[in-house]
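Batch manifest, entry 17 of 40.
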Amino acid sequence: MILEGDFLPHVSTQPDGMLKKAYFVGYMTNRMLTGALGRSTEDDRDYYGKKRLDMAGMLLAQIFRQQFKKYTDDMRKYIEKETNLNNKTITLANALKHEIITRGIKSALSTGNWGKDKHDNVQKTGVSQMLNRLTFASSLSHMRRLSTPLSKQGKITKPRQLHNSHWGMVCPAETPEGSACGLVKNLTLMALVSVGSDSTDIIHKLQDWGVKEFE
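Output type: structure tokens
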């Protein structure tokens, strides 16, 4: 179901997680209403603690998911066409066009155009790039580059400014000139990207370490 797999996937993707999603929707509604009524401070959208980074694994999973959906759609259309023609035998080898996934991933890695929407428009550009090997420091910096998904032609200044939450996570000096200034950042060399984990697993680990109560 769409609600199970696509709606709030960071909360849960299991059938028994619908109650958690309902609580989370209620929490978001409460935050929105209290902020609109002035009873609580509004969240800062530029605060880096609320940011999520799409790493290489997630990006490859997205492009594979799109290409696999295209692969299954082409297979379904071929079988429906052969069925409508009343063919007694259907050759599955002609329906399984395995080169669709390979060609799609190769095209994304070579051009940097990552994914397309239902109108066949490119969703992201410049995702994969040629590694800068001018110096060792430039190679390290290029591999830790962050790109904010905002239009570089816009004149908004708030996302481009240096935020106090960048301390220790984003280099305050290195950013390109021109329209990409402030939108393309570089992760510091000592910064680490945390990955999602189930809270119950953390509680079990603490119990294994001898922690009796966890608040």
